[in-house]
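User: Predict the structure for this protein chain, please.
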Amino acid sequence: MTSKLCWALGSALALSIVCGVALGPVGVPFDDVVRLLRAGVTGGTIGARDAGFYRIVWDIRLPRVLLAAVVGAGLAVVGVAIQAMVRNALADPYVLGISSGASVGATAVATTGLFASLGVYALSTAAFLSALAAMALVYLAARKNGLTPLRLVLTGTACAYGFSAIAMLLVFQSPRGEAARAAMFWLLGSLGGVTWTSLPVAAVTVAAGTLYLRTQAKRLNAMSMGDETATTLGVDVARLRKALFVVTAAMTGVLVAVSGAVGFVGLMLPHLVRLAVGADHRKVLAVAPLAGACFLIWVDIAARLLAAPEELPLGVITAALGVPCFVFLMRGRGYVFGGR
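Assistant: Here is the predicted structure, written as structure tokens:
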């Protein structure tokens, strides 16, 4: 069943990419999208009549859609790993405080002009550096007597409140209203202004992190049953938790740096995937990236279309979808959060 679901989601992902490129404030016919994509891949000739559409397809829409797929896949995978690592059904990629830490750097760039010499890379660079600093701070604060689930959750949550307060203070004191608005828009998640240069680092990081987590699927199954049970099964829980912390924090930092803080993807997708394939992480980690990629592509399409020609923050749409979905799962009798 899992393999069939993966094939179905893979086909849905290919269709979603084409739809993501075709749909927007300026629509591009689907047959033209397929033809221009084929021409771009094979090096075919583009006529003068198609030059405008070609630029929309290749320079604007395609990198954005591919990055949406990468971010969605990455957030879903990190959500699965973190929920197993801290054994908390409410955990998501931002529970460790990495997102809030990244928001400090991004807000500082938007409101004060920090790293202005880096141009378009200033915001993502500052966000990633501050995410690394937040990761180091959380790790140093939580490592005493071991990285236990409770210590990680409490330390990450406390640090997240502190980082959020700093970011809000920077926005509040900003003399430039437009800069403050841009900072708030980024804090809610956005893929606006994405170029091809934003894609490689995020794609490589998500691919490497996902591959590593899939090799640890059996150990994640054991960890989900408790530290004592995992230890009796031969898992070095302390070492594994440290490795998971580094991998998930690094993936979160990279994803937040390129897309802002997109909520609910890493919280809800793991539960929905478990509802379909069960709690075995070998299956969950095979399906979750495809489901997350498809989901965020369509969220980005909605963000572009619902208020066109303006864009909505991604976090607004994911919250509007995630809250009712979460309530539905809570009221359902056939699902146990975190799996059985």
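The mean pLDDT is 85.
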